[in-house]
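Researcher: Quick sanity check before group meeting.
Model: Go ahead. Protein one:
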Amino acid sequence: MQIITDLFIGFIVGYLAFTNSIATSLNTLLVPAEEPVVIMEESPNEVDTISSLPSRVGKAIPDILLRSARYQAAAVAGSAGLVGASTREPLDAIVNIFCTFISETTVKTTTGTGFFIDPDGVIMTNAHVAQFLLLEETEEDGTTDCIVRSGDPATPQYQAELLYLPPAWIQDNASVMSAAIPMGTGERDYALLYVSSRTNGAPLPAVFPALGFDAELLPLSSRNTDVLAAGYPATPLLRDGASADLVPRRATTSVSELYTFGSNFADVFSIRGSIVGAEGSSGGPILNADGNVIGMIVTRGDDTIDGPGSLRAITLSHIDRTITEETSFSLQENLGGDLAFRAQIFAETMSPFLLAILQQNN
């Protein structure tokens, strides 16, 4: 009997020591990290990290949309509409967003890329591209006109309305919104547009060529995996002027590095150089092997590391997480409802707020 008792006590002591070691490891992982998360690979002597980028983490998020009963009601109003991908070909889904600024003394043009993310006519692009649709309402320094173009070469097709632009991005970037070449890390640099009409007055398509997307967290194993990038590089425009034709480009490349905005998730990834990598491709999609969008181009990359034409993209998981913070609705939910009504309520709710920020920084 004493032998059994001794064995039982030995088992309990060993079990408690084992569970204590697990608890210590879990406690280490659950403590908020001030440095990039370190994740152990199969070998205990090898570690992998997500590099940190400068971030607004810790700053208050504007809650005007969360407090607006009209916006919250508009976000769920109307029919569900179409959902899911209607094409797997990025060249069918991408668009060129072309804006013209006319003042008393100058005429300026800017160009960026976007892509249909919903078959009801919702376009995803960068905030630093979509900001010009907001500037259309100011008319303080002249007049602004933005046209959605598509095709090869790009030709005018649609008029669009601003459906969503993160107020936190405006707060952080209002003082540099007029920069010729927008800089920054890409944090919250996204927007949603809604196609409202054709430029020639013809009826809108019943279904737009939209890409599917994957908003799951990007794993560390994504490094060196092949991806497909697409966009409208503006090299001809920069070389030959505003009348130059812009043609869509696509290229297979690979993920080189992952970055975080302090979330300890992969919020940004860099891709190696390709023919897509040039000004004007901002807002273009990055697709995985399944044909789903996992990221959107936001900035140029580091050509010394990743070769000429390198790019950086924010992940769809970053977009999904942050749009939920600011609206209380996921990215998928933000694509539904009565889009025309939601665009109207967004303009009425947010535009005065955003324009006031712009005026304070001018």
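Researcher: Fine. The other one?
Model: Protein two, sequence then structure:
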Amino acid sequence: MNMKRSSDMNGLRAGWILLVFFTITPPLMVFQWVLLRVAPRQAVRFPHFYHRNLCRLLQGRIHIRGEPAAEGACLITANHCSWLDIVVLSAVRPLSFVAKREVGTWPFFGSLARLQRTIFVDRDRRSSTATFKTVMQSRLRAGDTLVLFPEGTSTDGNRVLEFKSALMGAAEATYQGSAKGTETAVPVQPVTVAYTKMHGLPLGRHERPVLSWYGDMELAPHLWAALKRGPFDAVVQFHQPVSLSSLGNRKALAAHCEHEVRSGLVALLAGRENAVSDDLDRESPPAD
């Protein structure tokens, strides 16, 4: 009886979240559409505000380790294990994503991605890599922060796959620095995302895939199951920014970022957060 009651309560919780989400999101999508046309600077920041509040709705606590690069031009290279990564990273700072082309065709969620100025790339057409790299460089030169998932796919949250270097060449871009007339290399910041707790209890290796969406999982059933499970804790570890020129080439850059992100994930999942942090214990999203 208690198990049935708990299941019913979890279902009510998930239903309430979806009801609120689908009530508030469509009008906010229209608002963002208007901002993109009349107030582009505000349109960059509004998804950050939206995802901060969405994270509150999901009862997600985000713990920040390390120091994010200053707002502005930055290429973030992060591990990828869930649709939650989009919510979590966007709740931390204003940014846009680089995603596979198929995301743009998804009903509803594809529209959300386009409204956040996502760059859609066709990973199956190697001949188009130069075109997408040019688009990314243009956005970086304009001062955007872009998130690239160099694994090229999502995982179960317990590991980091090899980082592909093809789009790392976008970091060749420079942007106008604070001093007039100066050009500054775009910083590349490795970032580790780890899901560490649910209901305040540590997640083990076998439980973590509850929050991970990977392989051939269908989105709707996974979304419903994750919402039913309850509040979660995520840790976002910002590693030291580097530049492509300091490491020599894009393959070396990809290898460095992969090492930093993998080391961070191992430490975070083992509970050794201080081994990769500067003892910052800020929680995001903060109160307005």
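Researcher: One line on it for the slide.
Model: Confidence is low (pLDDT under 50) at residues 275-288.
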